[in-house]
Amino acid sequence: MLGPRLRLFFAFGMLSLLVGCASAPPPKPTPKPPDKATLALQKNRELERKNKELSQRIAEIERLRKKDIQQREESLKNLDTTLVMMEDKLLSLQSQLEAGKKAAALAKKKAQINSAASRPPLPQAPAPPKARAALKGPPSIPRAATRGSAPAKSPFTQKAFNLKELDPDLPSKAKPKVAPPARGLLPQGAKPSSRGSLIQAPNPNSSPSPPLRVRKVVKAPEQTDADLAPPISPILLIQEPSAKKSYNEAFKALSARRFDKAIELFNRFLRRYPNDLDADNAQYWLGQAYFELHAWEGAEEAFRKVLVNYNHGDTQKGYKTPDAILMLGRLYKRKLRPSKARYYFAEVIKRYPRSRSAAKAREDLLNIQGPKR
Predict the structure, then answer these.
(1) Closest-CA residue to 228 (of 356, 355, 372, 346)
(2) CA distances for 311 relative to 21, 36, 325, angstroms
(3) How far apart are CA 140 and CA 159, in angstroms?
(4) What angle do helix axes 36-118 and 259-272 make, rounded to 10 degrees?
(5) 258, 278, 302: which is the final residue of a domain?
(6) What is the domain range of residue 327?
(7) What number is the average pLDDT over the span 92-117?
(8) Are residues 251 and 269 in the same domain?
């Protein structure tokens, strides 16, 4: 049998085991799986959160982009102002240089005149005898002797006297030609010659017949213009940045009928962007502004540059060729040269018959007045 100590120890162990089992935590319940509605709601909330973050990022990017565009516009504006100032300074320097060249040329000319005036005059060689005789005039022809006496000898008997040799500026008088009479009829005072021809006796009372006037019919030459042919090496046009703003500004001035301002802006645009896609349009509208101011020379030069510098094509394809030729016709119509105006109107109709410029040219041909030559 066990001793009392061993029994006590066994009892204490059993008691500890029972107490430990009683104090153990209860088992956790297994969670239930969420249903589909709960999952959809969670996904929707997550998507809303992500959309909100994306919207904030897009707003920030848009704000930065606008700020960048504003900074670029300000820098371009400052650059334009700098270019304008440089152009004005360059023009003033060119004008000063030209004025200096003119002043130097004038001073050189004055110095040459003063040096020539200070030199002693060169001795002139005496004129030869023949030249003196020519200057004095032709010698007098001796009169014939009295009736019955021998005629006096003259130095002009061996050679015919010709005033043209002494004075080449005298106009030559053509002798009138006399048509021969019909065979068998002798005019009064005519004598037959040994060869059968008629010799007209001089009649002191008859005056020489005036020369016949022949009216020549001159055919007007056909009109041509080499500028209407397509250019061999036209200017290649490309899209240049920041050019559209300058073009729109010039066109806005033209639409407001501020033609002087439009001419200034279009010229500035063509100097800065000669290869831009709108360069041919700017050249044409420059001529239109000159035309409205009745500056015919500037208008014609601008319209011809459209034909000479850029490719030719129909208006429907974006070219200004038909409009430029039409405006040349209207230009010559204003200058009261109807033949040239008809020529350009006909060229528009022949080269671009389906264009709007051709329809306008037909109307202008009907209304034009003046000779057709």
Answers:
(1) 346
(2) 103, 69, 14
(3) 15
(4) 100
(5) 302
(6) 311-373
(7) 82
(8) yes
CA atoms within 13 Å, Cβ hemisphere of 199: 7
Q: Is residue 180 within 8 Å of residue 212, measured between CB atoms?
A: no
In this structure, the chain runs to a length of: 373
Contact 293, 253 (CB under 8 A): no
The pTM score is: 0.46
Hey, how many other C-beta atoms are within 10 angstroms of the C-beta on 289? Answer: 26
Structural domain count of the chain: 3
SS3 state at 24: coil
**What is the dihedral angle through the alpha carbons of 53, 58, 60, 65, rounded to the nearest 10 degrees?**
170
pLDDT in tens, 37-94: 888 888 888 999 999 999 999 999 999 988 888 888 877 777 777 777 777 777 778 7
Which of 302, 335, 353 is where one domain is finished?
302
C-alpha to C-alpha distances, 157 to 129, 142, 153, nearest whole angstrom: 22, 11, 7
